[in-house]
Amino acid sequence: MSVRDPSRPVRYPPLATNALVGLVGGFLGYLTGLPDLAGVGVVLAGVGVAAALRSQRSPRPRAAAPVPLLLALAFAALACPLGLVPELAAGAAGLAFLVWLADDPARFPGGVGRARTTLLVPALALGIAWASSLILPATAAPLGVAAGVLVVALAALAYLFARPSLFDREGAATY
Amino acid sequence: MNGPGAPADTLRWRPLALLLLGVGSLLLVGAVVVRSPVPIFLALPLLLAAPAAAWGGPRSAPRLRVDRRVEGAGADVRVVGTVDASEVADARDLAVALERPPGLAPTATAIVEPTETAFRFEVRWTAREPTVVVVPPPRLVWRDAAGLVERAAVVDAEPLVVERYPPELVRVGAIRLRRTVALPGETQSTRLGSTGEFHGVRPATATDPPRVINWRASARAGRLMANEFELDRTGDVLLLLDARGSSLGPAVDERLLGVSRAAAVGIADSFLHEKARVGVGVFSEFLDAVPLSTGRGHRLRVRQCLLGARVGPADAPSERAAISVSRYFPPGVTTVLFSPLIDPEATDLLLFLRRRGYPVVVLSPSPLPLLAEGSSLPADDEAIVARMVALARRTRIARSWQDAPTVDWPDYWSLGHFVEMLRRPAVRRAG
Question: What's the rounded Cα separation, in Å, for the pair A120 and A116?
Fold first, then answer.
């Protein structure tokens, strides 16, 4: 008996953000160095499937649209060789994916502009991380140290996700 | 995470945020396995996006003022509303969920037109039959542009009631009714509002609201004076709804009760507008009664009682209804009984009411239009069945005429016959 989210006309797939994620992701796939441009093909296939799912009217396929794109990007990132350019390309692909998410054709236009905070904070962290790997002298660290640092970071994130009330702020009792 | 014990208005991670967390974590593990930092650079935006979205959104449940009104006429129902979204960064990040009340069918896609600080919505429904229903306030949720986090808003909205009843009922209040009190003519009353003639001024009491204070008279007298009004009672009417279930099943019973409820609201409004006293009784298992009275406050009480009416068990005895009625209402009051008259027990109620001195007029919403909707028979068979059911219905109506004048009501959007019958007091009092 309820009408949830009064449907608004589904726009055609947003070409600009699809092209952006295809371009950046395709470059990441190219850097994998797989024969016959297989990396590029995987990423572009992921972009195509995701765009097709997103243009459906039914909410269930639309909700599943990011999955193939994420999997394709993850495959390309895991297959990439070491290097500053692949690191930069992987980070840019992650940001392009967030831009793609914000430009949802089922929602009101202008999502990229409204998602400034969601894009700028990861971009800032990414910039710091890439700059540190580019500029600061590095030595080969033991694998255990790196894994430990990552585990601590993940634990901090899990704590944050487990307590969404940390983002709450009580309203003023008086005005 | 989003546990069941979490308050409704706290921040909630959407499934997409959890997906990004999962994929990002797997990428970190993969980076350690393949000994390459490249997956970490892809994971970084994925892991930070949801906390950043939460940080950039409203930090507590936004309070949103919703102004709504009902438009349209007859079966066409349009609910138009505006949401003042100045408490959120952008109104386009609000998702609205509109609940459709029972008895109304959607006719068009809802329209939502957002700006940065407000948005307007319009919903179009069709009333299949006369109805009186409360439209619940819309549920509003702030959702970040990337769809990662959401937070329910606190909606501040006045209750909204959709009233659709046959247009003939607007003038039914002009009918002169029998009085059951020994106060002919104008009767002094302190009720408020535009109804009634001005009678005079009196010293104000502590319970008088400012709108009845006569400020000029107060200035002259040096103390607060209040206006008094006189109401001209035209008579009394009792609206009695038989809300017992029937052999037709709860779905049909509920719709028939909805039709009766709408007609009762229309009749009550019309008589109250003419300053008559109106009483209401809803008999399901027991009698839920609003005693005879008049005025604006009474209109709200009547509506509240009728909106709360629900279909009860079918085996509640008719005599109990008649006895309960006699406890609340004086004999002789003109009684309009709303009953589909489907089962014999329903017809018995007329007899018991008549024995206790209530002149009853029966308005019987016919179940035939509802039964025809759900039929899956071939057209020829359906025509035969319809004729047989119509004959049975006619027989039942004829039997009930032995106890009280009865109006069959197959066309729910017209009550011309019923109004004409009420205009003839001789027929009306035949019970």
Answer: 6
